[in-house]
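ligand=NAP
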Amino acid sequence: MVRQSDSLMTSSPPSAHWSLIIIGTGFAGLSLALQRMNGRQEDFIVLEQAQSPGGTWRDNRYPGCACDVPSHLYSLSGAPPWDWQRKYAEAPDIEAYLAHLAHSLGSRIRYRAQVTSASWQAHKQLWQVELNDGSCLTCRFLVAGVGPLSEPAWPDFPGVENFTGPLLHTARWSKNQDLKGQRVGLIGTGASAIQVGPALAPEVAQLIIFQRTAPWVVDRKDHPYTPGIRRLLRTSPFLRRAYRTWLYFTRELKGLAFLRPNLMRKIEAYVRRDLTHKVVNPRLRQKIMPKTPMGCKRILLSDTWWSTLEFPHVTLETDPIHHIEATHLVTETGTRYALDALVLATGFRYQDNPMARLFKGEEGITLEEFWKEQRSAYLGMMMPSFPNFFLLTGPFSGLGHNSIVFMIECQTRWIQSALAHVAALGKSEFKVRAQAYAAFTNEMNRRSKNSLWMQGCQSWYLDPEGRNTALWPGLSLSYWWRTRRFNAQDFEYA
Ligand code: NAP
């Protein structure tokens, strides 16, 4: 039976036991916490390992960091309006937005509370959550909003430990880092690199960009909003909603190209022509002309990437990196670059994210062990052997073409329905049936098989077997449809 403190409706919870613990204060954790707060379901706490909220938008502080989804879409639909100043907000503005949202949760958020382990106690039907300060909390339901792109990937170049200058990862940027007038090497040409490169170029003496794969880059068409537009969007809920809907559906339409390769090939031909037009230097053009099918990796948005590559003090090096010395980077053909600092825009450990070791389900099995065959989660959220445990933005719930915040809100609404259903049944425990999980995984594998992501690119979307385990293989609308209500028959209860 559900105890009084597990009814999800009580207002003064005991300090060490909670009905619900949410880990993380990025968009995911805050979205669920705010929904519960607004519904007066207050027996929960949010744990945040850092001193301030924001998740990825707090941690990714490299120069030029911004969102490549328009902010009126990349924000919570139910939250109070925010006065976005430009179409694509910069990281500090998004961090301020999240801090504002977190503020309304007050002491519901416990900062500097890093989870060191969380294990399912079958006999008590509880999760036991241990923190870095040695304290221990328990909860009936546990939600991990820890972000799949939270752990930076540090490539192991031979000799990298001998480099004497600063070695900076875009996901761990130190605020006071000054690279003015320095010779800087930038490794990577992904979503982070195409933002940090143009931001660094005007201030450094030399920028050498090491490209392994030429990315597909299309115009972002960023612009500030006029004061009049800002006022209208701030004051008119109707206009705000209409604009958000328009932004959503234009992106969703573009998503059709991922499902129809013929359409993507037409867009590809257009971007090639555009690139030929814009980049006059034929040697540079040849280097940046992508060799992979468009959409195979994330399509990048930038208004400044190509022009940055044409600056006289910027070099695009496509020779593979051979090794690194105290003051030099040496390529495979022996070119030596003297460097004062090295910027790694080399992405994240998605497929082997160490957070999977933190969570221990039935019989002490870790998520990492459970995922040995394949990373998967029913609707991107639940695994058998992990009762009462939800992942936010888990496997198969990422997006390449639309706002991840939309997916997060589908998930948090679904979790709310799931919790309400379990409470209505008077049960303390529920988990997804192994059969439903297997059927979902098979469906995802089948639908991913002919996707563009599996057409020969190497990316964080793919596991070591080359299978997509990251993205939802369809339009986000179809994900909304699948999560619009809780499908009780796919679960077992105790
Ligand atoms: P990423 O997409 O994984 O790109 C990493 C880059 O580093 C790639 O160019 C990769 O080359 C290169 N690289 C990695 N290891 C290397 C090695 N050993 N030697 C040479 N090059 C190496 O990482 P990211 O740019 O940080 O982006 C990751 C994700 O974060 C994105 O897909 C997106 O979801 C998110 N993001 C979003 C935004 C936004 O505006 N919303 C901004 C930044 C990031 P290859 O291509 O050859 O592998």
